[in-house]
Amino acid sequence: MEAYTSFAQVYDMFMDNVPYDSWCEYLKTQLDKYGITTGTLLELGCGTGKMTRRMAQAGYEMIGLDNSMEMLEIAMEREAEVDPEEEADCETAAMDLQRQPLYLLQDMREFELYGTVNAVISVCDCLNYILEEEGLFQVFERVSEYLEPQGVFVFDMNTLYKYEVLLAENTFAENRDTGSFIWENYYDPRDKINEYDLTLFIAEQDGRFSRFQEQHYQRGYSLDTIKELLGKAGLEFLAAYDGYTESPLTKESERMTVIAGKMNITDK
C-alpha cells in the first residue's frame, strides 16, 4: 500500500490530463439521483485533494482519506494557500473556511470515522491498489459500516482489459521542464497484478535533476468479483458504467465506474 512518495512532488503535473471537472459533475449527477445533494462525503485515496476540493466547493462537507503522508501534505498546503483576509467578500471567505476538507492519514481497509457519511467516493483507480480480494472486501465492509442507510458508494477501477492489453508489458515516458518519468509495466495474468516500475527525474531549485525510483502494484478485478464482494459486505450493486458515462461496460472498456449502496436502497 505504500506508494506515491517521491512521485507526490510531481503527481499533479503528470496527471493534468485527468478531467477532474467533468468527473466532479458526473459524481454530483449520480449522487443527485439518490437524493444526496448535501451532507458529508468521504473520498478514499484522495491524494493531493484535487477531487476533494471540487466536491467541497460543490457544497459537500468533505473528508479526504489517504495513506500517503506526502500526498496529504500537498493537499493541506493548498487548503492554506487562500488567505481569507485577501478575499473581497468576507462572508464568502468564512463559508470557504467552513467547507475546507478534513484530511485523514489512514489505510482504506481499516479506516475509522467519528460518524456516518452520506456517500463515499473514490477516483483515479485507487481501489486497484488493493491487491487481495480479502483486502477489497475489507474496504467495502468499512464503507458499509460508515454509510448512512440511504448512502451511496461511487468508485472507479481500471479494468482487466486495460491491464492485459493496453498496459501489458509496455513502457511509457514523459518529459517536462520540471520533471520526467519512465513507466515500465509488467503484468502477471495469473495473479492479475500489474507492476509499475517508475523512474522519476525531478527538477531541483539549483537546476539539477534528482533521480528517484518507485514500484507500484495494482490488481484488476472482474465485475462479477466486485459484485460478490459488495454483497458480502452488505452493499447493494446498483450500476456499472464505461468510465464516467452512462454507457454500458464493453469488453474494451478501460475504466469502470461502479455505484453501490446500502442493501435495499431504492433509486429515487
UniProtKB/TrEMBL annotation:
Transmembrane segments: none annotated. InterPro entries: Methyltransf_25 (IPR041698), SAM-dependent_MTases_sf (IPR029063). The keyword Transcription does not apply. Keywords: Methyltransferase, Transferase. Coiled coil: none annotated. GO terms for biological process: methylation. It comes from the Bacteria. Signal peptide: none annotated. Pfam families: Methyltransf_25. GO terms for molecular function: methyltransferase activity. Residues 42-151 form the Methyltransferase domain. PANTHER family: TRANS-ACONITATE 2-METHYLTRANSFERASE-RELATED. This is Class I SAM-dependent methyltransferase.
